[in-house]
Amino acid sequence: MQAASQPPPDKSEWRQQFRKQLRAQPNPEEASAAIRLHLTHRLEVSEPLRIATFSALRGEADLSPLIYELPRHDWLFPRVRGNDLTFHRISTTSELQPGAMGILEPDGRLPVEDSQSIDLILCPGLGFGRDGSRLGRGRGFYDRTLSACRANATIIGIALPHQLVDAVPTEAHDCFMDQLATVDGLTPCPPR
């Protein structure tokens, strides 16, 4: 699969370009399955982990089947609470309901999990750079959340082909990925 062409230079223009590409994508089931397979190969041999993941929006990779394929791990899904994300452990996608911005999220009555206990974060984004840079949707939820997680948590950006470029613009508060999961496999990002 081919990578996306380089978007224009300003963050808002990049977001606009990535959103346009997301809307133009057919259902990315095949690419999602390829990414899940690469993640499964890594996670099926690891000790049980506390893994933060996300509910896919249109054009993003759907990772939700992993909670059924790898049930020995604790799966944490985010919930928007004010300007922050809280994580809640679920064991089935039926525990998710439409929440902020129409994104499926856990019921707010479920206990909030300590972000310092997360071992692995599967991170969404509008676009990713091969250098580990990430362009989010512009509200800063993940940048604030990632900076609050424990220092040794591994952060893996989940990038479909249309979401991957050489680099996206960053600012001082932007968090970088440790690895990228793509249809081609798991790739380490340069250390920061």
UniProtKB/TrEMBL annotation:
BP GO terms, sorted: folic acid-containing compound biosynthetic process; tetrahydrofolate interconversion
InterPro entries in alphabetical order: FTHF_cligase, FTHF_cligase-like_sf, NagB/RpiA_transferase-like
Keywords attached to this entry: ATP-binding, Ligase, Magnesium, Metal-binding, Nucleotide-binding
Top-rank taxon, per record: Bacteria
A Gene Ontology molecular function term of the record: 5-formyltetrahydrofolate cyclo-ligase activity
Region annotation (Disordered) ranges: 1-29
Pfam families in the cross-refs: 5-FTHF_cyc-lig
Entry annotated with the keyword ATP-binding: yes
Membrane-spanning segments: none
Residues annotated for substrate binding in this entry: E60
Residues annotated as binding ATP: K11, S12, E13, W14, R15, R134, L135, G136, R137, G138, R139, G140, F141, Y142
Coiled coil, from the record: none
Catalytic activity annotation: (6S)-5-formyl-5,6,7,8-tetrahydrofolate + ATP = (6R)-5,10-methenyltetrahydrofolate + ADP + phosphate
Cofactor: Mg(2+)
SUPFAM superfamilies the record matches: NagB/RpiA/CoA transferase-like (SSF100950)
EC number: 6.3.3.2
Keyword Metal-binding: yes
Similarity comment: family membership: Belongs to the 5-formyltetrahydrofolate cyclo-ligase family.
Name this protein carries in UniProt: 5-formyltetrahydrofolate cyclo-ligase
Species assigned in the record: Haloferula rosea
